[in-house]
Amino acid sequence: MTAVRVVDPGPLALVHDLGRPGLASLGVSASGAFDRAAHRLANRLVGNDEHDAAIECLLGGLRLALPAGTWFAVTGAWSDAALVTADGVRRVVEPHTAKRTDADAELHLGPLAHGLRSTVALRGGLAVPAVLGSRSRDTLAGLGPEPLRAGDVLPLGPEPATSVPVADLVPVDPPTDGVVELGVRPGPRHEWFTAEAHGLLTASDWTTSARSDRTGVRLEGPALDRVPDRVGAELASEGMLRGSIQVSPDGAPTVLGPDHPVTGGYPVIAVVVDSSLDLLAQLRPGQPVRLRLVTGHR
Q1: Euclidean distance between the first and final Cα of the chain, in Å?
Q2: Which of 73, 200, 228, 289 is deepest in the core (most CB within 10 A)?
Q3: Which helix (H) or strand (E) holds 151?
Q4: Cβ(71)–Cβ(276) under 8 Å?
């Protein structure tokens, strides 16, 4: 059995596939890759099924020992990535490119230049034990594989039936460092907020808070006030979805991420549309965000 070894996980490295949807009635969130497009692309580049488990690395710093003949690809955030052989030869690893190790070597992800989370897929996928049908780490519930640690050995699955695509480089722009625009639709508790709050939601320049993680991305900006008869009111807990924008009593909005709680008691003023959800994964603390009301199919 082929396996890779974690030399250094960096600040946080997690195993993820595309999650465990459909279990909310059991109190289990879907979890899964934060940047789903990056996850799918990395797997396609090495000929895997898009659901196969890969590594989601926060802030770079990951080092993996790869045996000779290992195919891999790095997508998502852009970093100073390199393949380093035992005799110290260093080869740059371009993003969104399938690479194969000719000899035993280490993959190094350096500091990130753009974005926040990189995805590393290895041909065959990570064959760690699944929990409730998924190999994803739910950081809120504590389900799935533990965060990676130095010395962990990760087995790879069998050789996929699909070969590594001949076109092994996919031109994809890096995550933007500037303003990120997220499409939103009105939420189910629209009536809890003043007309001014609704105007501020889509007219303000928001800032990504450092108090953000896989459970939710907090936005800093003007307070979104409730209508007078809802101030201090309690809302019975209700089901929550990834992308829901909950507003806490201090008027601050938080966009729920893949490891969100299944239920919540803060009113939801709006919901980020599915086509914008992957952008949340790459938001850096302090990065500006705008919310735009969308109509039609997105």
Answers
A1: 43
A2: 73
A3: none
A4: no
3-state SS, 121-167, equals EECCCECCCCECCECCCECCCCECCCCCCCCCEEEECCCCCCCCCCC
Tokens for 207?
Answer: 């800032």
Helix boundaries (H) for the chain: 36-45, 195-203, 274-281
The tokens of 205 are what?
């320049």
How many angstroms separate the CA atoms of 125 and 289, rounded? 34
Query: Are the C-beta atoms of residues 241 and 216 closer than 8 Å to each other?
Result: no
Q: What's the DSSP call for residue 62?
A: -
| Band of residue 298 on the pLDDT scale cut at 50, 70, 90 | low
Q: 230-270: per-residue pLDDT in tens?
A: 998 888 999 999 999 999 999 999 999 999 999 999 999 99
CB hemisphere CA count around 84 (13 angstroms): 14
20 residue type, one letter:
R
pTM value is 0.95
pLDDT at residue 166 in the model: 82
Q: Which of 106, 116, 18, 5 is nearest to 58 (CA)?
A: 116
